[in-house]
Amino acid sequence: MKSSTGSSRAFEPSKAYVKSREFNWKIVSRITPATLYENPKRLLYKLFLWDGVPLVIFTVVSWLLSYASIKRKLAEVALHKAHDELEIKVEERTADLTEANVLLNQEIKEHKQTEEALKESERRLSKAQRIAHIGNWELNLITNELFWSDEVYRLFGLKPQQFGASYEAFLDNIHPDDRDLVNKAYTDSLKNKIPYQIVHRLLLKDKTVKYVTEMCETFYDDSGEPILSVGTIQDITEQKNLEAQLLQSQKMEAIGKLSGGVAHDFNNLLTSITGNAELLSMKLQKDSPLKEYAKEISKASDRAASLTRQLLAFSRKQVLQPKVMSLNGAILDMEKMLRRLIGEDIDLKTTLSDELGNVEADPGQVEQVILNLCVNARDAMPRGGKITIETANVELDESYTRTHRTVIPGPYVMMAISDDGSGMDKETQSRIFDPFFTTKERGKGTGLGLSTVYGIVKQSEGNIWVYSEPGKGTTFKIYLPRVEKSVEKIVKTKEPVKSLTGTETVLVVEDDGMVRKLAHKVLKDYGYKVLVAENGKEGLKICEENKGPIHLMLTDVVMPEMGGRKLADHLKDLRPEIKVLYMSGYTDNTIVHHGILDKGMNFIQKPFTPETLAAKVRGMLEEK
Q1: What is the Cα–Cα distance from 361 to 375, expressed in whole angstroms?
Q2: 346 and 453 both lie in a single domain
């Protein structure tokens, strides 16, 4: 297609052709030949209308489009800039969040560590409280709510759901005899605004009694009103039991010393009474009416001597003759005699260990222990019942010795003698081994049977414990050290001397005038030449000054200034040939250790009869 001029340029792209990435425009103007010949003004007008207006419109539109494009471009640039800034801010924010997250994780970790440390601390505290038997409590005085730690619940033998968690509920678990004491201590503490400490008892649901020590401090608000009480409570039952054992041991030791001293002086009196009664009887004619009186004096002296022997047994001052023996053998040997003794209405049952170890003790004293305990059991069952004798090998470890302070850990042989009689309360048990204490009617017991048992067991390096409740019978448990030795064979006693008389010289050293005179008279009547001294120093002087032989010295052990053992030591060089016979009513550690006479020692126990003294002296003089 050609233009009106015949040229095809009109159809070529216009110089005003706008190119953009979004728009491609082409404007075509068609003019007829007639139009070209019209009036130029009109032509120009028409040209303007036909070409100018579109051009203006095009220009405006192009400008608007360009403006929009530029504006859009600027928006894109701004958007990119904002996007970049946003990315930077996001990166910065992300970094901040990452750092915050790290810090948060660190805080969480530290918090968990703190929680674990707190839990571990609580576990350690709980363990420490359990070991020390001590718990803590808090009482909110505004709400009357009481908090207990786990150890307090264990101490009271309760579970949380069994406890009312109030002050009144706490008082309900206090021993009835101590409630007023505890309540007064607490109320006085509130009144005076001072802490308090008190020892009292708990009475558990199973009737168990526990001793506790309790401490409390109360905190107050600004107006002086109490708001919170905080306290601890500790189980001291074991400590109280050990203190009671210590006091009992000290008491028994003190009574033992007193009893031993009384026995010593009493035996001196009995020696004179018994000896002179025997001498009187020997001097009287067979048909003399006075002979009966002398006999009664001797009987009374024998009974009194039996009491002093029991006192000596209790005070652990008698001379023992220990042998390696079997408790099973001793029980079986006594079984028939025991059945006759306890009567037909009481059943005797023995439960003896098949492989029982041996002990080292005085067989005669062990038999005395079994006899006394069976008699005591019989008397506790006037309407009949059952006595059980049991033996066993036991190991007493350190955990046992912590609650039984006098026990040394190691292997033991246990002998238990039980009855199903009337039993004993705690107060009676605390005095059961005291000399002369008895629950029997007047005239039916001396109160020395169980004290004798106690002394024999203690002197044999053993221990004895009593377990009893009113109406539930009694059990005595004896523990003797087990030895890895064979049972000793019984050695035959020496043949008695054929004659009691002699002509040798005997030195009598005795600080008690009555005993000294009696020994002098007895030995002189049996033909001996007798020298006498009032104490060890005088005896030593006689030995130094006397030029003739002194074949035997009869000396008391315990004397003022110089005792018999020290005197004998002085005479070893001065008169090595002299034989020494010790006499005493109270054996100390001078010649006897743990009830065993030192090797090579000869001893006669006061009180003795004239015949016993003469036989002992004669026997020693005839020994080579």
Answers
A1: 21
A2: yes
Distance CA 317, CA 596 (A): 10
Give phi and psi for 390, each to the nearest 5.
-130, 145
Which tokens hold the place of 129? 């409280």
The Cα–Cα gap between 138 and 170 comes to 12
Q: Report CA-CA distances (Å) from 50 to 26, 35, 43, 47, 55.
A: 15, 12, 10, 5, 9
- Domain co-membership, 525 together with 447: no
- Judge if 109 and 145 occupy the same domain: no
**Same structural domain, 457 and 606:** no
CB 232 within 8 A of CB 215: yes
Say how many C-beta atoms besides its own lie within 10 A of residue 298's C-beta: 19
Residue 474 near residue 450, CB atoms below 8 Å: no
Task: Label residue 171 exposed, middle or buried (CB < 10 Å: 0-12, 13-18, 19+).
Answer: middle
Cis status of the peptide bond prior to 176, with omega within 30 of 0:
no
Per-residue pLDDT at 590? 56
Residue 149 lies in a domain: yes
Residue 330: which residues within 8 A CB-CB, separation 6 or more?
363, 366, 367, 370
Q: Would you state the structure tokens that stand for residue 347, as one six-digit string?
A: 């059943």
C-alpha 335/C-alpha 353 separation (Å) is: 16
**Do residues 229 and 329 share a domain?**
no
Write the DSSP assignment of 79-134 as a string of letters: HHHHHHHHHHHHHHHHHHHHHHHHHHHHHHHHHHHHHHHHHHHHHHHHHHHHHHTE
**CA–CA distances in Å: residue 462 to residues 312, 459, 509:** 17, 7, 36
- Among the candidates 177, 202, 235, a domain finishes at 235
Q: Which CATH number belongs to the domain containing residue 219 in this structure?
A: 3.30.450.20
Q: Tell whether 523 and 463 lie within a shared domain.
A: no
Residue 571 sits in a domain whose CATH number is 3.40.50.2300
User: Highest mean pLDDT range out of 2-6, 240-244, 259-263, 611-615?
Assistant: 611-615
Count of beta carbons in the 10 Å neighbourhood of residue 264? 24
Looking at the predicted structure, is the pLDDT value of residue 545 above 70?
yes
User: pLDDT tens, 201-253?
Assistant: 998 888 888 999 999 999 999 999 999 999 999 999 888 887 877 777 777 67
Total of domains in the chain: 4
| pLDDT tens, position by position, 276-333 | 888 888 888 888 888 888 888 888 888 777 777 676 666 555 666 788 899 999 999 9
**Are 520 and 505 in contact, with CB atoms under 8 Å apart?**
no
**Closest to 277 (Cα-Cα) out of 18, 518, 575:** 518
The answer to whether residue 597 is domain-embedded is yes
What's this model's pTM, rounded to 2 decimal places?
Answer: 0.57
3-state secondary structure of 24: strand
Residue at a domain's end among 414, 448, 483: 483
Q: What one-character DSSP code corresponds to residue 78?
A: H
d(CA 201, CA 209) in angstroms, rounded, equals 7
**468 and 334, same structural domain?**
yes
| Pair (87, 187) in one structural domain | no
Whether residue 151 contacts residue 179, with contact meaning beta carbons closer than 8 Å, is answered with: no
Q: At a CB cut-off of 8 Å and minimum separation 6, what does 54 contact? A: 27, 29
Domain with 189 in it = 133-235
